[in-house]
Amino acid sequence: MQLICTRSVPVVDSESLECRQAKEALFRDGDRYVLYLSDGATHPSCGEERLISLSSREALLWLNENQAEAGSFWQ
Questions:
Q1: How far apart, in whole angstroms, are the C-alpha atoms of residue 26 and residue 35?
Q2: pLDDT single digits (tens) 6-24
């Protein structure tokens, strides 16, 4: 598995209104792409992490998101 790209996305926690830096990382494994999402919680038991399998097209869309669109895969 190869790391393609990482980025941080500023987010506001809806419950505490605390500012955080969510983390996103795109990995490639052969013809498969996997997007890792972490909400940036300071305590691991309170945080949320996701793995999303992406097509090549979706991976390209993620790579080309502009700053205003960053974090779109959280929805």
A1: 5
A2: 988 877 766 677 787 888 8
